[in-house]
Amino acid sequence: MSDAVLMLDGIEKTYNRNRPGEVRVLQGASLSVARGEVVALVAPSGAGKSTLLHVAGLLDTPDAGQVAIAGRAMQGASDRARTEMRRGEVGFIYQFHHLLPEFTALENIVLPQLANGAGAAAARARAEGLLARVGLAARAGHRPAALSGGEQQRVAFCRALANAPKLLLADEPTGNLDPATSAQVFGVLMEVVRETGLSALIATHNMDLAARMDRVVRLEAGRVV
């Protein structure tokens, strides 16, 4: 589709290729995510959801197939070009927040902006705005250990949005939270995604959350159906 922010075409990925224990994870997986579309990716554990997200986010290279982000084909791109695309156009949220424990919530959101070339004042202002948007303005100076699980995940969400990406990739973003907190955090996530017009591919095993997205696709036998 011409307005696709993410395009995956015929993605193949095998681990331990041509060795004992070879595992074919992706076998011609194809998927597109349109501008402003939120797509749920569902599959059993071990079916390859994380691998597909890593390929989509340029964290892993497929054995075959095409990856395009924001209209730019990435096959054959240099490591530097892949890093710049990942840093500027793609935001990641994981099941476990992976916040830097020695830095405050605010600093965890400022740092990726500085790495992307933003000025300190602008980075701080954006971080403060994002924290306010998710209801954590008063927690900006707290380190992750002083935050609840839901608060930590909201900070991780703000960090993913720090560089104003076009594409958000989330791997079970509420999977380690209790049901009530999960619903609350996911609600905040969806509100901000809708307001900003982000495209998102969100892997989840929670069908109630999946039903709140625009479209649900399933990964079966290494293919998206």
Question: Could you explain the architecture of this structure?
Answer:
- Helix 3 (105-115) crosses helix 4 (120-133), helix 3 (105-115) runs parallel beside helix 5 (149-161) and helix 5 packs parallel to helix 6.
- This protein starts with a strand and ends with a strand.
- It has a single domain (38-59, 78-224), classed as Rossmann fold (3-Layer(aba) Sandwich).
- The radius of gyration is 17 Å and the shape is globular.
- The protein has 225 residues and is α/β, with parallel strands linked by helices.
- Helices cover 35% and strands 26% of the residues.
- Strands 6-7-8-3-9-10 form a six-stranded mixed sheet. Strands 2-1-4-5 form a four-stranded antiparallel sheet, covered by helices on one side.
- The longest helix is centred in the last third of the chain and has 18 residues, at 179-196.
- The chain contains seven helices and ten strands.
- GO terms for molecular function: ATP binding.
